């Protein structure tokens, strides 16, 4: 009973009081990758991450050793690390997240497993124009959040004191990684309802290199916004699928028309060129 009350109090505090939380490095023993480490954030509002072979095998369906992958909205690296394990040391994963609270933990995670991964991270939001944005969250510990040019409170009442930088990803890639783009295999976007805007801003890259595209259908998205996300991912030759989790055993459901996007409150989808 005492432990339950202690955890409940900690969660309430994390929602209302901005604080720094430490991390704990945990070790996982996987069948194929061997020993893998991951830094879990000890924020009471964040679930403990477990690295599994099933998750890595999910990414291996799309990412081969030596490939390049991009993680937009990395948070602490809970998808970045499995993606990088699939790409291997010879591959490259680029990670982007402007939230300084999660970025500190992400930095720790990118330095782990140096013999198995190649990760480069940047504290930027990916947007359709290069400018500065307000970053807000619904809870004070900033475990998640979103950007906006003018604070309308759509992401919550807690706001970072300093603005964050937004960049155009196409310009960034052409300037810094032109020799890697031929191996671009996978792009994941999780941006609190801004997925469609981001994907539209890199449409030229997607059309040229045909990576698998993963996005989230956000809980609060309207029907029109859901239709827009469907149409944005459903580029010529692409087929769309809803999937239940980032596991190789997860159920997969074809998304055949835009109206299918309204069948579930929130879910992940991927588009793959057939």
What does this protein look like?
- The protein is built from eight helices and 15 strands.
- Helix content is 28%, strand content 28%.
- Helix 2 (53-60) packs across helix 3 and helix 6 (195-201) runs parallel beside helix 8.
- By secondary structure, the chain is α/β, with parallel strands linked by helices.
- The mean pLDDT is 94.
- The strands form three sheets. An eight-stranded mixed sheet has the order 5-4-3-11-12-15-13-14, with helices on both faces. Strands 6, 7, 8, 9 and 10 form a five-stranded mixed sheet that branches.
- Helix 4 links the parallel strand 4 (92-96) and strand 5 (119-122).
- The protein starts with a helix and ends with a strand.
- It is globular.
- The protein has a single domain (2-273), classed as Vaccinia Virus protein VP39 (Rossmann fold, 3-Layer(aba) Sandwich).
- It has helices at 2-16, 53-60, 80-87, 100-111, 169-176, 195-201, 203-209, 223-233, and strands spanning 23-30, 34-41, 68-72, 92-96, 119-122, 125-126, 131-137, 146-148, 158-159, 164-167, 184-189, 212-217, 238-243, 252-255, 267-273.
Low-confidence stretches: none
CATH homologous superfamily label? Vaccinia Virus protein VP39
Structural class designation = alpha/beta
Tell me the distance between the termini. 54 Å
Q: Bin the helical content.
A: 25-40%
Spatial shape: globular
Cα gyration radius (Å): 18 Å
């Amino acid at each position: 009973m005492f432990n339950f009350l202690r955890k409940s109090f900690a969660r309430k505090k994390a929602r209302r009081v901005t604080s720094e939380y430490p991390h704990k490095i945990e070790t996982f023993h996987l069948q194929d990758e061997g020993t893998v480490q991951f830094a879990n954030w000890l924020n009471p509002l964040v679930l403990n991450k477990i690295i599994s072979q099933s998750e890595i095998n999910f990414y291996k369906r799309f990412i081969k050793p030596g490939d390049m992958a991009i993680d937009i909205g990395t948070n602490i690296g809970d998808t970045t690390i499995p993606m990088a394990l699939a790409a291997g040391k010879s591959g490259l994963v680029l990670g982007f997240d402007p939230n300084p609270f999660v970025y500190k933990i992400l930095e720790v995670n990118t330095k782990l497993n140096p013999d198995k991964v190649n990760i480069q991270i940047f504290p930027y939001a990916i947007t359709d124009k290069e400018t500065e944005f307000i970053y807000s969250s619904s809870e004070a510990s900033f475990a998640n959040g979103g950007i906006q040019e003018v604070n309308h409170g759509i992401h919550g009442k807690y706001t970072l004191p300093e603005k964050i930088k937004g960049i155009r990803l196409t310009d960034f890639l052409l300037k810094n990684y032109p020799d890697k783009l031929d191996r671009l295999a996978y792009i994941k976007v999780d941006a609190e309802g801004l997925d469609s805007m981001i994907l539209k801003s890199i449409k030229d890259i997607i059309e040229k290199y045909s990576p698998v595209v993963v996005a989230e259908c956000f809980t609060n998205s309207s029907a029109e916004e859901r239709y827009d996300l469907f149409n944005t991912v459903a580029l010529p030759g692409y087929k769309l699928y809803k999937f239940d989790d980032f596991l190789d055993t997860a159920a997969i459901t074809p998304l055949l028309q835009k109206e299918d996007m309204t069948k579930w409150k929130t879910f992940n989808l991927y588009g793959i060129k057939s």
